[in-house]
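Example 3.2
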Amino acid sequence: MSGSATPAYRAFGPETLPYGVFSLPDSEPRIGVRLYDDVLDLCSAARRLGHPDAHVFAQPSLNALMDQGPTGWRETRAWVRSLVADDSGVVDMAQHCVPLDGVTLHLPFAVADYVDFYASESHASNVGMIFRPDSPALPRSWKHLPIGYHGRAGTVVVSGTEIVRPSGQRHPGDDDRPLFGPSTKLDIECEVGFVVGRGSDLGSKVGVADARRHLFGVVLLNDWSARDIQAWEYVPLGPFLGKSFATSISAWVVPFEALSGAELPLPRQDPAVLPYLDGNDHDLFGLDLHLSIIVNGHEISHPEFRDMYWSPSQLLAHLTVNGASLRVGDLFASGTVSGAEPGTFGSLLELSWNGTRPISLDGGTELGFLADGDVVTLTGWAQAPDGRGRITLGDVTGRVVTRPSAT
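Structure, written as tokens:
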């Protein structure tokens, strides 16, 4: 293992232990956990110790592990934590660890379906003021139900994947014909993604009280958005080509159990929601996640997830209330995380107010929307359950390119 005994506050310590999928140059992808600056090979450790799930850890995705259900999730996390519970365990596991810079990280799970919500009141209001200045900022339905749309599972990509600037139609020019070409307003959206590890039957619904039994883990998520394409196409049906070209997620999935210390009461909802979205404080929880947006090495915003209006359990309940089924590997996202102050906005659309107020960066440069070559990284952390350490969320990075790199 690279390094010896490590302070509890160091990123990706034993408090976090997120799952991912990695490979070495001479091996097939398999499951590991992040431990400081290394990857602990669960398959290798399980085989040496005679763990019955060694074959599960040999899989190229987390789906088989997730399919074991909540009891299996708890047992696996307890076993992994026992391996590195103290310094002697960390030293013993060194033979099963490989340096992070020597592995290739893969999409951690096979994405079944992808749904993106719109759960921040500040973000929804800002977008309304920008895109619909002559109408109410919030749609009439916004405080009665979590608004969302079905995205494209096949374009969910792992952190580090290059993002090719999308092309599409934009608002008409002087001749009243739509313009076509590469997006000139390529944007980011800082979001939190929730990974479903337990399915449900078609025609049934998952209530807010049952949501935790389906929530396996959390990823950071960047919902790349072409705002000029979106503005032309989204009325009357909503996001389509302006969103579907790429969604980046972190390579590490933080188990939901690890975030118990980050739970807090949901902000008060007014007006009262319908009964299927209502519940007690345990069911309608918020999460105190501290996020950061970094563009070309400059931190430009620090959104706080605690400001979100809708609970993850309400998002899941609404997603299934019509009888839509869940599948192992479903991914649903919070929507852009934005606070009330500009320094906590989660998109360039808001931070630059649709490009009219560019952000001033160090060195005298300005940022409106993304240029080719720009690199965006989202990071985050939460308080550990013991109140002392930190749970580190896996970062998600993407670089904007004009065309795919040659392979």
